[in-house]
Amino acid sequence: MKRTLIQSIGIIALYLTGCNQEHETVSGRLYIIGGGSRPVTMLNELADLSGIRSAGYMYVLPMASSEPDSAILRAKEDFKPTGIKSISGYNFRSGVVPPQAQLDSLKNAGLIYISGGDQSRFMAVVLNTPVMEAVLQAYQNGSVIAGTSAGAAVMSKKMITGNQKMHLSPDAGFTTIEADNIEITQGLGLLKDVILDQHFIKRQRLNRLVAAAVENPEQLCVGIDESTAIIVEGDIATVSGNGQVIVIKNMGKGSIVRNGLLGSGGLQLCVYLPGQKFNLR
Question: I want to staple 183 with a disulfide (CB 3.0 to 4.6 A). Which of 98, 104, 163, 254 is the partner?
């Protein structure tokens, strides 16, 4: 009887340990900016959130930019009014072994900032590399990970690239809601069950996010406008800045495709304003 009881306790403990590993929490936070101008109030908020004004440092990842060295300099200039004393960065390159000293600096940064540009360019450099590993470890250990525009898009596991499969012209715009048109590839995976879109209201990207929501029912689809951010702590997002955040949730009522067009009766759409919170699950 006693042995059976001990065995049962051991099995339960093992099961609970497995559950904890599956739902492992991180101590870091995300500051995801929808692009456009970044008011100094938002940058100050980011500096306060990361706690690096007097100690610690900010590390810029510029690889989304076509001019990465300039992106580092712009970030330093943008954050100058916040009083952050130490800002550095490095242009990691695809196919080049990253310097260990730079990886260590990245892992230990209190604030990691991912610049705008092209999210696919960024992921082509970091996907499944020590750089990506360092960002994930920093987030796990309590760093604030921030990004704007393309730097916002890369934070989710499923990443909208900005390309269309059906309409290849760069000026085509997202004028339809059709099947198998939105190109989605792998991002950093800081958010596992959320797809992010940026410049959202300014660039009229609702069609794109609706299509993504219909075809990815397990994902919460979040569109962040310019000069606006969401602050992610655990499963809760708080809207900050000057604009709005659109959240589309697929309630799982199925979808249909007819003549290539997508249809669904199960979408819930919410519009959130600065100061409001919403759940990411």
Answer: 163
What pLDDT digit, counting tens, does each position of 113-145 carry? Answer: 999 999 999 999 999 999 999 999 999 999 999
Average pLDDT over residues 74-97: 96
Task: Indicate the pTM of the whole model.
Answer: 0.90
* C-alpha to C-alpha distance for 65 and 175, rounded to whole angstroms: 27
Burial of 74 (0-12, 13-18, 19+ CB in 10 A): middle
* 149 CB-side CA count, 13 A: 18
Range 27-279: architecture per CATH: 3-Layer(aba) Sandwich (3.40)
Mapping DSSP to helix (H, G, I), strand (E, B) and coil, where does residue 270 land?
strand
Give the three-state DSSP class for 228.
Answer: strand
Q: Domains of the chain: which residue ranges?
A: 27-279
Rounded distance, CA 204 to CA 259, Å?
24
The angle formed by the CA atoms of residues 51, 238 and 122, to the nearest 5 degrees, is 70
- Residue bearing tokens 């690096």: 52
